[in-house]
Amino acid sequence: MKQWEESITIAAPADKIFPAVSDFARHSEWAGHGLQATKVGDGPIAVGTQFATTAKLLGTQREQSTITDLTPPTKVAWDSVGALGKVHHWVTLAEQGGSTVVKKGAEMVEPKFLAKMTMFKISKDIPKGLQADLANIKSNAEKSAG
């Protein structure tokens, strides 16, 4: 299905960036659309951990997100299911000479009717959102590293 990915270089090591991008409770520090995430259940965060999320995008979006990959400090991925359907998300980190290339992406895996009807708008908005999220991740990481 439809996939998007953006990247940015951050002047900080991956192990300093990874905690902010892998902890859903901290996504509101950098994610757009007023994202709020609440962990479902007890125990440590691992593959299979679920979060109830709420964001403001085409109205209020309530989703269930499940971590599908947690490989410190190089990758975190999750699937979100909500009104638009199932969307796979990921953040990857690759160190390069003292900096880290961070990539953030999304793939519409199982679009529902709403997503299909608004795909033109979604296809314009998602890359902008990915870029804004990456800029916020960079700003936060470079502030804490500096």
CATH architecture tag? 2-Layer Sandwich
Indicate the percent of residues in helices.
Answer: 25-40%
Secondary structure tally, helices: 3
Q: Please report the total strand number as a whole number.
A: 7
In CATH, the topology is named: Alpha-D-Glucose-1,6-Bisphosphate, Chain A, domain 4
Shape category = globular
Q: Major sheet: order of its strands?
A: 1-7-6-5-4-3-2
Mean pLDDT: 91
Overall CATH class: Alpha Beta
Using brief descriptors, characterize the structure shown.
146 residues; alpha+beta; Alpha-D-Glucose-1,6-Bisphosphate, Chain A, domain 4; seven-stranded antiparallel sheet; 45% strand; globular
List the helices and strands and how they pair.
Blueprint: E1 3-10, H1 14-22, E2 36-40, E3 50-56, E4 60-71, E5 75-82, E6 85-96, E7 99-111, H2 113-117, H3 119-145
Antiparallel strand pairs: 1-7, 2-3, 3-4, 4-5, 5-6, 6-7
How would you portray this structure in words?
The protein has 146 residues and is of the alpha+beta class. The protein has a single domain (3-145), classed as START domain (Alpha-D-Glucose-1,6-Bisphosphate, Chain A, domain 4, 2-Layer Sandwich), CATH 3.30.530. 28% of the residues lie in helices and 45% in strands. The protein contains three helices and seven strands; from the N terminus they run βαββββββαα. The protein has helices spanning 14-22, 113-117, 119-145, and strands at 3-10, 36-40, 50-56, 60-71, 75-82, 85-96, 99-111. Strands 1-7-6-5-4-3-2 form a seven-stranded antiparallel sheet. The protein starts with a strand and ends with a helix.
